[in-house]
Design brief:
With 492 residues, the chain is an alpha/beta fold. Helix content is 41%, strand content 10%. It has 17 helices and eleven strands. The structure holds 2-acetamido-2-deoxy-beta-D-glucopyranose (2 copies).
């Protein structure tokens, strides 16, 4: 029995030491308690202490798999003690600007000015930013080459983390060149700022897609840097493998059918309609259901994008809003059959019907698909050429082009700000090390594959503003689509 001897030793201990010990214990517990509270109020890019967006609910993230003290330590270590000590000497290095000449930006970069047109006269004022906050999941302030993040809501899965990573890599790529900006971002799918409802006071809000009837400003989505939850790697890796996969069969040996594989249960009327076209003899189409739960269990073997290029025709159907699948579908080099989309992402506006894809009508959907398949089988070299042009378009949309788009969008946006962006007190700096610090093992592996380095070449040069250019572009597109509709009518 140890108690009596312990009591005896306590009795011999001078009272002041006892007092000190007691004070230390209580101070430590107060400190731990405060630390706990502090961590519980620190929001992170991984989603700690954030609720899902009220305008689009989803199951909240669960971080309970980590022990509580480990989680507290991680939140504090990553959020407060990483960026100040990060070694970014490498990224500070700047190439001399003349080391390589700039190229001309792709034509579709002209849409940047159209997207920002609503603020061309009024400019973007702090009032705009504060009003856009009501629709935002987070606010990004880039200030003197550093990124500050003010978090309001969680984003589904890891899309916030991968989006912010993309911005950090842009800062790495063009050190000292990205201007100071203050912008609001919503990471959920559907545009929210209708042009009729917000006509009197258009709000600038970044997200992944827009429509003709919305003010939302499209920005490259997270999947360009990867989507670990469904095993999609960074865009450059996926493109390389899809292209290789597409060469497995010659055009003549590809199945002469239109193929679609995806998730029809995403509240998408067009995908539900598409299920009715699943008949290879009658409609020339094969429509397959993708069950992500099942795929995950099977190690994603059957959902590998590179294995889906064995068909001459690949269908694109929008999901709940735009779908990240567009770029993978066109990359196959098969003839992409695009069912007239309602949503546009930043690059899809650059696709020209009959040059890069075949436009399919959402009315009489199965008939329109059948018509395209018959046309392609009757005109194989033309169909193959369009498929190839689509693949070449996607090849030119490499990550360098994506960064250049981001660069020009932020630069044009910054020219409209009529205030000096300053990080708000509630924002925290995020740097590549602090983001990696918060990432789980799989996310970390994914992210590290898309680290960018200072570019030896300046960003591409934007073509001068030309109001007629976009007008002609839209008219041209409309005319080609009408021609195809006419061909369909003649056939039936
Ligand atoms: C930081 O990284 C560079 C190389 O990128 C290295 O030369 C330097 O010693 C590092 N500095 C510290 C303090 O670790
Ligand atoms: C479409 O038809 C094929 C072949 O008959 C079948 O294997 C597949 O499950 C069908 N797809 C759907 C979504 O029902």
């Amino acid at each position: 029995m140890g108690a009596p001897s312990k009591a005896a030793s306590v009795a011999r201990t001078p009272t002041y030491i006892l007092f000190c010990l007691l004070a230390l214990v209580s101070l430590t517990s107060v400190f731990l308690y405060k630390l706990d509270r502090f961590a519980a109020h620190t929001k992170t890019v991984a989603g700690h202490n954030l609720e899902p967006t009220p305008w689009h609910l989803f199951p909240p993230k669960n971080f309970l798999e980590e022990a509580r003290h480990a989680r507290i330590y991680k939140i504090i270590q990553c959020s407060y003690l990483t960026c100040p000590y990060a070694n970014d000497t490498f990224f500070k290095r700047r190439h001399s600007e003349s080391s390589r000449p700039a190229s001309k930006c792709p034509d579709f970069f002209s849409f940047i000015r159209r997207d920002l047109e609503p603020w061309a006269r009024t400019m973007i004022k702090m009032d705009h930013i504060m009003a856009a906050k009501n629709f935002a999941a987070f606010r990004v302030v880039i200030f003197e080459g550093k990124l500050y993040l003010d978090l309001y809501y969680a984003c589904v899965q890891s899309r916030m983390m991968f989006t912010i990573w993309g911005l950090l890599q842009l800062l790495n790529k063009y050190p000292g060149m990205v201007p100071n900006v203050d912008l609001m971002f919503d990471c959920m799918d559907k545009p929210t700022l209708s042009k009729t409802e917000h006509r009197d006071f258009p709000l600038p809000l970044f997200r992944y897609c827009t429509t003709e009837n919305h003010f939302d400003i499209p920005f490259p989505d997270w999947s360009f840097w990867g989507w670990p939850e469904i095993n999609i790697r960074s865009w450059e890796e996926e493109f390389r493998d899809i292209k290789k996969g597409s060469q497995g069969r010659s055009w003549a040996r590809k199945w002469p059918r239109a193929y679609w594989k995806g998730n029809p249960n995403v509240v998408s009327p067009i995908r539900e309609e598409l299920l009715k076209c699943n008949h290879s003899r009658k409609w020339g189409a094969q429509i397959m259901r993708q069950d992500w739960g099942e795929e995950a269990k099977a190690g994603f073997e059957r959902s590998k994008l590179a294995n889906q290029c064995d068909y001459r025709y690949k269908i694109y159907a929008e999901g709940y809003a735009w779908s990240v699948s567009l770029k993978y579908i066109i990359s196959c080099g098969s003839l992409a059959l695009i069912i007239s989309p309602q949503y546009e992402d930043f690059f899809s506006r650059g696709l020209v019907p009959r040059k890069h894809y075949w436009p399919v009508s959402p009315d009489k959907l199965c008939r329109s698909i059948k018509f395209a398949v018959d046309w392609g089988n009757a005109n194989p070299s033309e169909a193959q050429a369009v498929g190839k042009a689509g693949q070449d378009f996607m090849k030119s949309l490499n990550l360098d082009t994506v960064y250049d788009y981001m660069f020009h969008l932020l630069t044009e946006y910054s020219k409209l700000q009529d205030f000096i962006p300053v990080p708000p007190p509630s924002a925290l700096e995020v740097c590549p090390d602090s983001l990696l610090c918060l990432a789980d093992q799989k996310q970390k592996e994914w992210l590290q594959k898309s680290i960018s380095f200072p570019s030896p070449r300046p960003p591409c040069t934007l073509r001068p503003t030309d109001a007629d250019f976009l007008k002609n572009w839209a008219q041209n597109k409309q005319r080609v689509i009408e021609d195809v509709r006419e061909m369909e009518k003649l056939e039936s």
